Amino acid sequence: MSNKCALCGSENARHSVQVTPKPVSVSLCDTCTEGVSSMPEAGPHWQCLNDAIWSENDATKVVAYRMLHKLPQEQWARDLLDIAYLDPELEDWAKEDLYNPYQTIHRDTNGVVLAAGDAVVLIKDLPVKGAGFTAKRGTAVRNISLVSDNAGHIEGRVNGQRIVILTEFVKKS
Predict the structure, then answer these.
(1) Where do the domains of the chain lie, and which CATH numbers do they carry?
(2) Whether pLDDT at 88 is above 50
(3) What is the pTM of this model?
């Protein structure tokens, strides 16, 4: 792994980040790794994408393209996307992770999208099979996990037990 960040060029690249879905990775610094894995804060750091989008390395171009799409509020990022050229195969790779139509989206009883780590409240008393207790209505379940292959299920801890909860019986708090 190189010591240089593929996006910003800083000398403290400590993370190897896979550029899905291909088995290719790039070296990134802490700031760039955080931006890639979540929604980045707009700021001067991301001006580095002006150079990264023109990189000779295809994986770096793909990551830069995806990052520019995460900064729609920045006029310079929109302008750069307008002039950036990726050959069709590379553009398909870059767009593959922008929107995945097969991604499982978890929603509470009101249709609000749930994310891992959210807190929810039970809206109904739920008998917990195999545990011998009933999870009472109004119980807060913090730091939920999403069941990746089933949009109707989340996991959380109630009365010290990790249980599967149907999303139709929770609301986001």
Answers:
(1) 15-96 (no CATH), 106-172 (2.30.30.40)
(2) yes
(3) 0.57
